[in-house]
Amino acid sequence: MNSERINSLLEQYRPGYGLPAGFYTDPDVWAADIEMLTPHWYIVGHGSQIPDPGDTKVVSLLGESVIVVRGSDGAIRAFYNVCSHRGARLCDESAEGLRQFTCPYHNWSYSLEGEIKSRRLEVVFDETFDPEAHNLRPCHLRVFAGLIFVSLSDAPTDFDAAYQPFEDVFRFYGIADTKVIRVHGFGATANWKTLVENTIDPYHVPVVHPNFTRTRTPAYWQAAAATRHAEVTAAADQAEREMDEWEAALTQLPNATGVIVQDGEHDEQFRWLVRGPLAPGYESETIGGKRVAPLMGRFTESDGASVFSNFNPLDSLFMSPDHATIFNIRPLAHDRIYWDTMWLVDSDAEEGRDYDVDEVCEFYTEVNEEDFPIWEWTYQGATSRAYRPGRLAPQESFIGEFQRWYVRRLRQQVETPATLSV
Amino acid sequence: MNSERINSLLEQYRPGYGLPAGFYTDPDVWAADIEMLTPHWYIVGHGSQIPDPGDTKVVSLLGESVIVVRGSDGAIRAFYNVCSHRGARLCDESAEGLRQFTCPYHNWSYSLEGEIKSRRLEVVFDETFDPEAHNLRPCHLRVFAGLIFVSLSDAPTDFDAAYQPFEDVFRFYGIADTKVIRVHGFGATANWKTLVENTIDPYHVPVVHPNFTRTRTPAYWQAAAATRHAEVTAAADQAEREMDEWEAALTQLPNATGVIVQDGEHDEQFRWLVRGPLAPGYESETIGGKRVAPLMGRFTESDGASVFSNFNPLDSLFMSPDHATIFNIRPLAHDRIYWDTMWLVDSDAEEGRDYDVDEVCEFYTEVNEEDFPIWEWTYQGATSRAYRPGRLAPQESFIGEFQRWYVRRLRQQVETPATLSV
Amino acid sequence: MNSERINSLLEQYRPGYGLPAGFYTDPDVWAADIEMLTPHWYIVGHGSQIPDPGDTKVVSLLGESVIVVRGSDGAIRAFYNVCSHRGARLCDESAEGLRQFTCPYHNWSYSLEGEIKSRRLEVVFDETFDPEAHNLRPCHLRVFAGLIFVSLSDAPTDFDAAYQPFEDVFRFYGIADTKVIRVHGFGATANWKTLVENTIDPYHVPVVHPNFTRTRTPAYWQAAAATRHAEVTAAADQAEREMDEWEAALTQLPNATGVIVQDGEHDEQFRWLVRGPLAPGYESETIGGKRVAPLMGRFTESDGASVFSNFNPLDSLFMSPDHATIFNIRPLAHDRIYWDTMWLVDSDAEEGRDYDVDEVCEFYTEVNEEDFPIWEWTYQGATSRAYRPGRLAPQESFIGEFQRWYVRRLRQQVETPATLSV
């Protein structure tokens, strides 16, 4: 890693302004980014996608192919998709009801728990063959509220400390008892930070996303800017009144409102969890506000609100009383990302009778399509010699928070370049 | 930039032989080339393409996206296509009658003169926000004979000194009063110098371009070789007689004939301007020689001649009495170029009545198609370990001139590596 | 070349285990590989493909375009496909009956023996022009058993010493008197060594290739593992008995059986030549074992056997009594190869009457399709951080031999980095 070039970029960074271009466009930064991102926990799916023993989900994460599998004991595990013999990929695609993993190259086999089935091998190997050394390499895995998290690091961040604060809200929304009804992904020419900054930016919503804008009151969008200007202050007061009114009328999950978690510069993760009211008349985060699926979890009626949450820089989960949506930024290169969206409804809901898949997915499908060109145009700008880090608007204070967090984490990464191992 | 490798190539160069392969194939040379090319002025269009205030042309030049716009005052300006806020591309495509530039990301707006419209921003920014620092970054721009030239350098070459000698000829041809009737572009796998050398090479014309060959007499093509051989000397004498005969009969623009400008090794630009007779019976540089559009400028009849001109290593303009053609080499990488062709006729000419677009464009469309494989095959040769710089033929003396000019400019570039800024 | 990184990989290698990942994935290793591969002789076709003077075959080899041509004297020669003047490609595709090579750029012409036709050039060049310096650059070429071999090195390996041991067998099979009936090629994302290791691996055949497996007895496949285990020892004994029985009944070419040539770690080439019995009832290496073309060479009946041979790490030739198949691995980048297959039958055989092309090609077309995903999956594994060189099975002892040979050759390459020239 060329630390000199990265250090020069770190010195150029001025808080309150955008990042210097090289943070988006420099392959050396990209190499450091990948190491910095590795210890985090990433969502690779939901337990409902692999309900039975031997069900697998093959996923791509930070350049690695990973097999997520439900074992004979019902527990979920993850393994690198690499045979210990000649390195061939074990599973080409997700599957159901496997009894074991069998390599397509030489039939080396492993139990669903990753142990090599060496009986057959003993015929061809002598006693110096060490079966233990040829088991599959496991990845760290945790299941939380039905969501499957994987970390590719030897020393992942502290999972329990990170997500315990999310627990009550996720339990109330019944995320553990949902099912995935659609997964949709597409690629874009952009740096992953372009997308993070877009995801946490309320300022662009009224410009780019008309239907998303309507899900909140005008005061909500304006209030994001904490400045002294009279107009904004009035909006902030108004938004606060709206929040108070909603809280006063709230009967469900009344102790978890507003900003519940919001990480900043000095936190290890980059998490947030926010619950707040939708526009009057809106029961769900949909086009027009009508519910599109049965209530989830412990809801007995809509709370007229939604939850935005984020687990790490790359993975978000947005929840309404009737459905939830997961967004995964998957960096592929300094100038290339893949964007995956998963939609969830209550596991007892029946397609056709209780919900229509297209209707549930309509809202964020539109939002994705509206953001896609923004990602590419913004990344394109960073490649220009005319690019200068612009002044962040007050509404973009959270982007500034992310950038300070990122710069601090990258500096740590450059100063103590740990060698990755499995 | 790896100056050591470039210096080694500079030492290998022998005048009179082709360039060593690395000048075409080495990415380090490519990085130096781009810096060397940057101070020049490049044609990005014709004023007729953006006739009214708010009309824009979005163009790509040396890796940058540039907006060319006619302002409210009728003047033409150019700006980098990068919003000063978050860097997003302001204009995705050329447009007509814009009132302002509005960024698709957060609605930041700029006047057609590039000034930020900060009134709306004042609501969200405090008094420390500096509007002047957030205007669009302008590019140097000049309009000459209706042609729009842009330079991306802080210190462009001297425009007036460069193009004053072209003025009389361009005025007579009425280039300012033409209109663009077609733009056609395509990409090729080749280095930009492969194309420059092809463009200024009379030696290949009789081999590759039968219809182009017929536009001049046989003596013209042979005379390009200034050697002692009897056959060539005879051709040169014959070509001179043909030139004299044409000049003697000339009634229009009689004081501008032959080689008017021809830059060499020690000049800053790499310009040329040559006017000479077509083959007997040819009124225009077309297949068969017939005129394909009304006479342009001050012509009252065809002068039976054409003009070849070049403004810099990458841009040429060829003129007949009834139409003109602009060629732009646009380098994209050491092994990738884009080739744009624009056809011009008198602005008062009416399609259908006065000209047929396909007929006007037929000649150079064919020439382009004939040259395309030559570019790729020649570049391919430079990648072979069997490639040796071959002896240049006498007919290629102008290629030798270009190569000496290029080597001299590159040496200057390597010796004084100025940092580019906007 | 970054010898430090290569040396570190060389130190990591443990005989008996797979190669460290960098040998497959590192671009520096790739650069060294190309130099190491250059002195070898590669099959570029069969004489029957260019039967008459002026017939040419244009081939790609290690990044070079090469013209293989039969001259006026009937001899076959090879030249780099690069004009000595400006470097343009002389021949875009294979052709028949050329009288000379004429460059498409400026009509420079060369005899079929590569000599420049300078008479016409003398008109334009003075006496300082040296025709000898502008002849085409020849490649080393040898014809053996009708097969055309080319080496791109100045100092190729010793051809006669290498292939003399193959002579009797190839003469008996009549390879010189065959014709090519189909050439089929396709690309894959893999390192060339992934393919070499796959080509010489008997262990995967029963897993991946059911029809190939049936061409030999079960004992044959098991016997590849030379271990002390009773089961394998029994198979080896059984395979030996089968070999003895076949040899006892053999009436044709009885003095050339079993392993005739098998290079190891300390040999210069990486050759092998093995002849052994097919399964009972099999007359040819086909699906089901029936003959698909007339007997070749001196065969009067099938010998119930087939021959596997290899000339260098990249080129193999497999022979049955009625047809032969040539396989060429063509490396394009560290992660990209092209795989060419050629099928040969007796030159007197008549399509439709004596053989059906699809039927002859069916067997190895299927084998190719079965191996293709294995190549990509195995290469993919080497890019994972979970990849560890696995223990080679006893059946993979020949892969271990190749790897020791490769590591030794690469070490020599790194220690004495000769500059390539033509």
Structure, explained:
Three copies of one chain form a homotrimer. With 422 residues, the first copy, chain A, is α+β, with helices and mostly antiparallel strands. Chain A contains twelve helices and 15 strands. Chain A has helices at residues 3-12, 22-25, 27-37, 159-163, 167-173, 192-199, 205-208, 210-214, 218-223, 230-249, 357-382, 397-415; strands spanning 42-46, 56-61, 64-70, 76-80, 101-102, 109-110, 138-144, 147-151, 178-188, 258-262, 272-277, 305-310, 315-319, 324-333, 336-346. In chain A, the strands form three sheets. Chain A has a seven-stranded antiparallel β-sheet with strand order 9-15-14-13-12-11-10. Chain A has a six-stranded antiparallel β-sheet with strand order 1-8-7-4-3-2, with no helix packed on it. In chain A, strands 5-6 form a two-stranded antiparallel sheet. The radius of gyration of chain A is 23 Å and the shape is globular. The mean pLDDT of chain A is 94. Chains A and B meet through helix 11 of A and loops of B.
Summarize the structure in short:
Chain A is of the alpha+beta class.
